[in-house]
Amino acid sequence: MSIQLIRKAVPEADEAIIEYIDGYLRENDFEDDEDAIADFVKPILIDAGGEEDKIDELCEHLSSLLQANKNSGAKKGLSKLERSVNMSQQNSLSATVNLTRGSADLEHVSGRRVQSQVNQEKLRKAEAKIAAKMAKRQEKSNLKIEYEASRLLDEQKALQEQYKLYNPILDYTTTKGKNKDIKIENFDISFAGRRILTDANLTLAFGRRYGVVGKNGIGKSTLLRAMARREIAVPQHISILYVEQEVVGDDTPAIEMVLRADVWREHLLEKERDISGRINAIEAQQKDDDMSESDREALENEKNQLNTELQEVFSKLSDIESDKAESKASAILAGLGFDTSQQKRPTREFSGGWRMRISLARALFCKPDVLMLDEPDNMLDIPAIIWLESYLKTWPNTLLVVSHDREFLDEVATDILYMHSEKLDYYKGNFTNFHATKEERRKAQLREYESQQEYRKHLQDFIDRWRYNAKRAPQAQSKIKILEKLPVLEPPEDEKIVTFQFPNPDNLSPPILQMSDVTFGYTPEKTIIRDVNIDLRMDSRIAVVGPNGAGKSTMLKLLTEENKPTQGLVHRNGRLRIAYFTQHHIDQLDLTKNAVAFMADRFPGKTEEEYRRHLGSFGITGMVSLQVMKTLSGGQKSRVAFACLSLQNPHILVLDEPTNHLDMESIDALQTALAQFKGGVIIVSHDERFINTVCNEIWICEGGVLKKFSGTIKDYKEMICPKDTP
Length: 726
Hints:
Structural class: alpha/beta
Strand order of the largest sheet: 4-5-6-3-7-8
Mean pLDDT: 81
CATH class of the domain at 513-720: Alpha Beta
Largest sheet: 6 strands, mixed
Number of helices: 27
Radius of gyration: 34 Å
CATH superfamily of the domain at 513-720: P-loop containing nucleotide triphosphate hydrolases
Number of strands: 17
Helix content: 40-55%
Low-confidence stretches: 74-78, 82-116, 140-163
Distance between the termini: 66 Å
CATH architecture of the domain at 513-720: 3-Layer(aba) Sandwich
Shape: globular
Strand content: 5-15%
């Protein structure tokens, strides 16, 4: 019933929003609390385009409806009172109403002792119910966000199962000549009651490579997901693949998992097996000497028909070069870091990060018309990133890639799709061109806006002066018409500056943190890193680079005492405080709490306002700090983790891939904060610009050995992948 009421009051609201409100009202016990219902419903429906007076009326109806549902099981008609009521003591009874406003002394109402007419056991239950109701109201905002998050998690589970519904098996030989440009106009996208895009236009030219950029939480992944699910009208003949989930770990070898990604090839191979099996069965039947001539002729006709179909299948397999598929899949896996033996290993033996690489390999192998990658460089080391950049530069179809790595976007993107203020802006060229053009466009927009405001003021002044003058009235009317026809220009948005700040620690006398001849392995037979010698000082700025699996993170864990050396010595100053950032630690955030509550548990002793102010200095502002953290984007969770690090007041910052998920403004803020920090910093990263800005030493971890590199990060990239290499 509530769905019909909401739809009638706000017909322009998305169906998902209506279902969300209905579900939330059913999930939570609002009883007849109209204020609580209005607090929840009004902001969502006003954002959806509803009128305030109609929404107020809706809240009254919803309150009545919920109360009616609550009372539907109650007894109807007259009921006998438990005891008689003495009306002369009505004043004393009225005084008990004050229980809901505070404490009351029933024995001293009106200055005299009276006999209570209230059952004391029921009174205690009523007080407990009131207290529980008040506590429930306090939790409503968190309950709301938890409900949204549970819907999100359910959708994530269903996404993989529904993929084939979104992408029917297409015969690539019949779609070759069709136009594969995408042009979708005037569409909206909302998520969890929040508008992501309003009246937006999506225009993608086939064969172009689009870098998708925008701030954390702006909705980039939501847009790609909506395209993948065809929630916006992408033509059915265009195949789409969005890489966001790792492959399932089972007994399937990695290379076989990649080969299976080409569903059209798999379909043809299965058809070939079925037809060949039927032909073999017919040939076996034809050896029966007792078969009648008519049956034999029927089988021969069926066999000829099957042979014709089989030739068509072979022709289609030849068109897609099916015989070269295994070598192509192997080359892609090799480029992403899988050696020959790893390609044959079952996927269940790989970690989540490596299974994400297999997902990426599957996408590159099957070559959809539109490939969408969400921060693919997060899961890769520098050699794999270099390979991926080279591979994507020759990508023949449409590509959309979300990335916060400027160098990666400069290498790969032919266009930039900028997402902001519920709209999409397009820029030709790579990220460097976009950055320069965006500022010029903003200045031009500001000049145009200021010029029009001045012109509007001039017209309005003329109108106000001469509107009631008989001689000048026609001219004033003319100016009014001009004013009404002027387009409404919006001022360019002021970009909020994100700042990170780490408190400067007290000085320590050296040695601060040293590793001397350290060797480590999880088993005596398999040494991961050996003979490590490194000295961290209060002014150290060290970057550790190298291929995945070489032992970089293992070395950091030796510094932080998460691992103990099997040989050698790790010396730490007795007063040393180390703050350690890793993606694993982000995963360990209590996602059922909001950021303020989480910090209050971890670092007690401050007021809520102080925690919110501290989170605000790391870009977690407004209501975001009060959202349950499972609803935050990856970049927002990273900011919460950095805010927690700063409260540890560390002497040494140990950072493992700190730029993953952060948007470019946050990366710039982190760079500035580290430059101003008076303690030591050691970083594992693949972000070339970040390393260049922050670090003055580069150490290479490879083959179980850690050694200092004399050049820059650019020199290192040249060394592992020379430019003239074909």
